[in-house]
Amino acid sequence: xxxxxxxxxxxxxxxxxxxxxxxxxxxxxxxxxxxxxxxxxxxxxxxxxxxxxxxxxxxxxxxxxxxxxxxxxxxxxxxxxxxxxxxxxxxxxxxxxxxxxxxxxxxxxxxxxxxxxxxxxxxxxxxxxxxxxxxxxxxxxxxxxxxxxxxxxxxxxxxxxxxxxxxxxxxxxxxxxxxxxxxxxxxxxxxxxxxxxxxxxxxxxxxxxxxxxxxxxxxxxxxxxxxxxxxxxxxxxxxxxxxxxxxxxxxxxxxxxxxxxxxxxxxxxxxxxxxxxxxxxxxxxxxxxxxxxxxxxxxxxxxxxxxxxxxxxxxxxxxxxxxxxxxxxxxxxxxxxxxxxxxxxxxxxxxxxxxxxxxxxxxxxxxxxxxxxxxxxxxxxxxxxxxxxxxxxxxxxxxxxxxxxxxxxxxxxxxxxxxxxxxxxxxxxxxxxxxxxxxxxxxxxxxxxxxxxxxxxxxxxxxxxxxxxxxxxxxxxxxxxxxxxxxxxxxxxxxxxxxxxxxxxxxxxxxxxxxxxxxxxxxxxxxxxxxxxxxxxxxxxxxxxxxxxxxxxxxxxxxxxxxxxxxxxxxxxxxxxxxxxxxxxxxxxxxxxxxxxxxxxxxxxxxxxxxxxxxxxxxxxxxxxxxxxxxxxxxxxxxxxxxxxxxxxxxxxxxxxxxxxxxxxxxxxxxxxxxxxxxxxxxxxxxxxxxxxxxxxxxxxxxxxxxxxxxxxxxxxxxxxxxxxxxxxxxxxxxxxxxxxxxxxxxxxxxxxxxxxxxxxxxxxxxxxxxxxxxxxxxxxxxxxxxxxxxxxxxxxxxxxxxxxxxxxxxxxxxxxxxxxxxxxxxxxxxxxxxxxxxxxxxxxxxxxxxxxxxxxxxxxxxxxxxxxxxxxxxxxxxxxxxxxxxxxxxxxxxxxxxxxxxxxxxxxxxxxxxxxxxxxxxxxxxxxxxxxxxxxxxxxxxxxxxxxxxxxxxxxxxxxxxxxxxxxxxxxxxxxxxxxxxxxxxxxx
Length: 990
Description:
It contains 47 helices and 10 strands. The chain is mainly α. α35 runs antiparallel to α36 and α45 crosses α47.
């Protein structure tokens, strides 16, 4: 087909004139170009200028816009309105508005054809200026022949008022649609369009009630108010949606019985619904849904004020109070409607105190989702409008009883208020608002097409294309864009809607939630605060002022105070939280994270009220609090990861002091990470020991490598004791031996330098490198050559020194040297044939001597976790006795770790399952209690406390909490009694 130059110029330049070819029309977005070309050439559209054809190209469906324009031209000709039609299409603004409406709605095109006499007035939208609610009401009441100023408007008799009622409705609806489709940014005007649609619904209900009065005998005896619910009540209605209402009726004068009020009121309500729902040539409005009333479909259609009050106070379910959140008197007797609002509002804001309120609300959302098309339903599906609405409503109902500023009916108004109050983060709020407007615009456009109630995403190509053009998206990308929005909405919904903080806050009393000094002092003392006066001072400091931070603290503290009280020391927890809050005062993420992440909030309150040490360390390393919301970030770094970080730091450092500072900083930070992971339940006991050991290995190995970088020496570090066994605690010494191949003098200087660096005082836990387990102890050389090391153990070492090698392994040094030293140690510790009788007696005497000499005075043997009866030393000596006996002949037993060796000995049959279990339980409980005491007190302790406060603390911190403080003591004594019996048989042959 030949392309006309004039047509292209007309298309590109926007100038008038030029004939449109099929190609031109296709470029504008027309699909059926043959039909469109024929229509444009018809006599009825001869007055249509080229710029109007180009305007059709911007419509949602250019083909339907042109078809609708043709029908409208024919209707204008039939009505003798051709001059008006010509004026409209010749006016650039009016003509463009007209084709945008026609391309967006077949149904409104039909409505305009029915009201072609008023076409020009409709497109000029005169009624939308000023107070639309009152103006719409005047139009609707005037249409039915009623006086808008009358106290009780009644429609004129006959069928004509009903036809005029529908014409007036579509007259106003078309004006709203004209403004909507003409908006440059539909999402920005979405709230205004929904408000106009709600105002129109209010006015229509007034007109329908006037018609119902005219058709209902005895209506004068009853005052009737219509209460808008749902979207209508919130003034955020769609184009086509069930209008949710309830009816309130009262006698209009004395002598009218309650039965008569119910009978006449119900007749009015039924007739009103019939007026709105019946289908006629003038069209219909929408369905009236009164199922939100008490008892739903089974309940009375109309109730008195007292009847509503009794029902809501005695029988109403949780969801019914959520529905009342949007209740608004919208039509009928205004004073009666206001009285209903007065009784309903306080009930809404006390509903969250009902038992199970939050769980019931969440369950209701789950039921709705279960019956929805999760993928296509924009309203009820995952990430749809209902997720946004339920999220906002739950926040309002939980926090609104104490904060009147968030008591808004409209979704966006409520979201804005929640954001100002700090209940929703600014970024999350902006995302939810943008998603809400976008999804509502999509819903509006879907409904506008045929004025049918729908919120299902289309599947047809043409329907998707039409929707995409209305929201400014590419048809091929629109489904993915909507899916992206909904996934993010669902993510935010789950983050906010399922906050544990909501359930906790909902369960608090008004006195607790208000945080008033008078109500709090007794409460704080009752739940376990030893110094409620000081606690109130902390609360006042945290919540004072009008800042956003103070607002968020007011949300957090009611729940936090309860959570602190559930910890070991509520006073410590609140004090530590105040200090941490002051440290992080200027950050934007801290309080928002605690508000949005229930996991982080509960973990932090537990940690601060359970560990003085960690609370102090968090003040030194406050950014580590971020890790509490993410288990992956709580996972301890591996030795390789720590080494890479330290190597990177060393590569940028200008001197050794900077490296040493960084070394200590990394270690302190990682200790905090391990503590947080331990107290958050992310690490089990074996993982905790491994993490602490890996950290010590990485720090020590890096330091040795750094110090010896320029020296020509092969230096190996052998880990001993708990370090060698991979069982270090928070403040365990790193017991080591230093062995070199040659260059002894240089190696000694290096070892001394390593000790000096790592044993220097630092914040947190000092890492003490202890070489006292070396041959000859402190009196022996700090470093031995490989030859000297081998000779000592072959000819001079005592039996206990070979025993100590059972927990030794090389952790740093050249591979070949480490392998050689390991072979030497294996030869000495794993001797074929085991121990002889003399060695067995010496073994038992040494153990008895340790019990007699090393146990501190005044400490009961049963309560010393390390050296006491059945404690860790008993278990370790049992294991070592069996290894000395059998590991020389069985390589499967050669494990340096206590628990690994226990398992190997049991598998090999050297320990019965019951003995192995007794030893394992005792060792793990004693080891865990020592770690718990450190976290609680901030220092290591080997003695099971007798003080009830300390016992309660460690009872809370152990992996299997007990009911009370004494129970942990009883458990320990019972477990170690069994392990001691095993030890006496294995060590002392008793």
